[in-house]
Amino acid sequence: MLVAFSIAPTTTDDPDGSVAASVAEAVRIVRESGLPNETNAMFTNLEGEWDEVMGVIKQCVDAVAAVSPRVGLVLKADIRPGYTGQLTAKVERIEQELSGD
Fold it and tell me: Which positions fall inside the Thiamine-binding protein domain (predicted)?
């Protein structure tokens, strides 16, 4: 399965409203999981089996909840049993279509 998720505390002690420190902790958890992942400006994408992906996301929620009484989580999943390597393969298929190959 592929999951795109965004997580953030709903409160911050940073005077400019930045959530970078708590989001960085969540990204650290994702990267240390060993699962295929990528982070962009809006979401972190994660690939793996249901239980392992959801376990990592729960760890991220717990880490952000440790610094905020409320956590916002946006999650989108592509559940396609039997397929792996889709984190890059989906993009490669689009690039092939764009190049006309």
Answer: 3-95
